[in-house]
Design brief:
Number of strands: 4
Structural class: alpha+beta
Radius of gyration: 17 Å
Bound molecules: zinc ion
Strand content: 5-15%
Largest sheet: 4 strands, mixed
Distance between the termini: 53 Å
Shape: globular
Length: about 200
């Protein structure tokens, strides 16, 4: 299976506000300002829109899957892959042992659709990559106990997946995307715990 095109930066940067700008390479001042602006827009979209919108479906998913213990039903959900008048979106989904490509209809927020499948998007609007919630939960736990190292994790995962014939050509793509997904998944989980605590305190 060859995911070169799907995971190249070229593919990702074009659609609207997606990729996190890494600031690397030679950029002129105007491009840097643009990248910063894009980053701010993404941050706002995540924190004001996507995360608040995910909260309720996330709690429902946790209940349904017994706190992610059994994701089989969620994973086998069939979603619409294309409605007339709406574009479709191809997402590469990263699991411990495989990468699967998925086509989503953009009629509904891609982030929310991915969440119902037990996946978390790497970008707030038109994600090209999504990560299995179990993996994010595992890594979050790991990074609570060791010094967080997204680069080491992403490289290990990339190597592991490539021995299973899932190759990613563009280096650093997984690191960048995975870092985004992990960061915002952590915000979602923390927000959920905070809300729960608020509810308990009121009783
Ligand atoms: Zn549709």
């Amino acid at each position: 299976m060859d995911l070169n095109n799907e995971l190249s930066d070229e593919v990702d940067i074009n659609p609207i506000l997606e990729d996190e700008a890494d600031g690397a390479g030679e950029r002129n001042v105007g491009e840097n300002a643009q990248a910063r602006k894009k980053k701010e827009q993404q941050w706002r979209k995540w924190s004001e829109d996507v995360i608040p919108g995910m909260l309720e479906p996330y709690v429902a998913l946790m209940r349904e899957t017994d706190s992610l213990r059994d994701l089989s039903a969620a994973r086998s959900r069939k979603l619409c892959s294309g409605c007339e008048g709406y574009s479709s979106l191809e997402v590469s989904c990263i699991y411990f042992e495989k990468i699967e490509k998925l086509v989503l209809c953009t009629y509904k927020e891609p982030a929310l659709q991915l969440l119902t499948l037990g996946l978390f998007p790497c970008a707030p609007m038109r994600p090209t990559l999504a990560v299995d919630l179990n993996m994010l939960d595992f890594v979050r736990g790991l990074f609570l106990n060791t010094a967080p190292n997204v680069t080491a994790w992403a490289e290990t995962l990339e190597g592991f997946l490539s021995t299973h014939k899932f190759k990613l050509k563009t280096r650093n793509t997984l690191r960048k995307h995975f870092g985004n997904a992990l960061q915002w998944y952590t915000v979602l989980e923390d927000t959920k715990c905070l809300r729960l605590q608020e509810v308990i305190n009121r009783i």
